[in-house]
Amino acid sequence: MALRSGGEVRRTRAYLRFMWSHEHRLHRLAVRVFNAAMRLVPFGIKYGIGRALRASSLPYSLVESGSVVVQIGAPKDTLYAGRARAIYFSLFAGQDGKVVIVEPNTDSLKEYEATFSRRGMHNAILCPVASWSERKMLTLYISDSHPASSFTKGTKDYDQSRLQDFRTVEMSADTIDNILAAHAIQRVDLVSITTNGAEQEILRGMRNAMAAGLPYISLARTGEGYLEIMNGLGYDLYAHDDRGYTFKRRD
Fold it and tell me: Tens digits of per-residue pLDDT, 1-21?
């Protein structure tokens, strides 16, 4: 059994953190300050406490020893801040499990690779590629000061003053289905997508994984219409989580 029992469907509620704009300048400043402060906290302390707090919270509670999880989006600032889903999934899945980490920013992936090596965590597959609905080249807007705010061209409608916070890079992209096939992964228990507006394109590139019975999908809340989109794909809202929504495959 690769997944913990979810028990009864939890009462869904909107978190207060979703009631304000994450694009506001003050919010972005607060995040950078918090991340800088948390970087000074030893890994074992922040992720030890974080693991205990997340053990009974979605989507982390869906992952147990032996689970196979795909994490799309792994910026290094969330790693420093003790908020990296990829790290928690790796800890919960254990050495019998597997975590596929898809992240186009090679600087971020180097930080994850170094962290996994230092901590003796050997269940991660690091994929330096963007995730999309097809195999192609994409233009990415990368923020060096706040990598978690990086995005793919066409997914955000920022004015020129906001775009000055980013540099552009050309990056190869592929589908989750192709990435999984390349690593001979046939079963996935959870896909977590924490990107900035690319969710629909990514979902179009994982039709095979869904058809194979993928039970849970988590989406960061960066736009609107997720309930309708996921309903059309055969998934119902399971609960709100710390980044947005967790959906469960309809029986």
Answer: 455 444 444 444 455 555 545
pLDDT of res. 3 = 53
User: CA dihedral in degrees (145, 148, 154, 156; nearest 10)?
Assistant: -90
Q: How far is CA 21 from the centre of its chain?
A: 20
Looking at this protein, which amino acid is placed at residue 27? H
Q: Does residue 11 lie in a domain region?
A: no
Both tokens of 27, joined, read 């919010």
Mean pLDDT of 107-114: 96
High-pLDDT (> 90) share of the chain, %: 77
Entry field: residues in the chain: 251
Query: Cis peptide before 59, with omega less than 30 degrees from 0?
Result: yes
9 assigned to some structural domain:
no
CB 105 within 8 A of CB 77: no
Number of domains, the chain: 1
DSSP 141: E
CA-CA distance, 215 to 98, in Å (whole number)? 16
In 3D space, the residue among 226, 193, 218, 163 whose CA is nearest the CA of residue 6 turns out to be 218
Work out the burial of residue 208: count CB atoms within 10 Å of its CB; fewer than 13 is exposed, 13-18 middle, 19 or more buried: middle
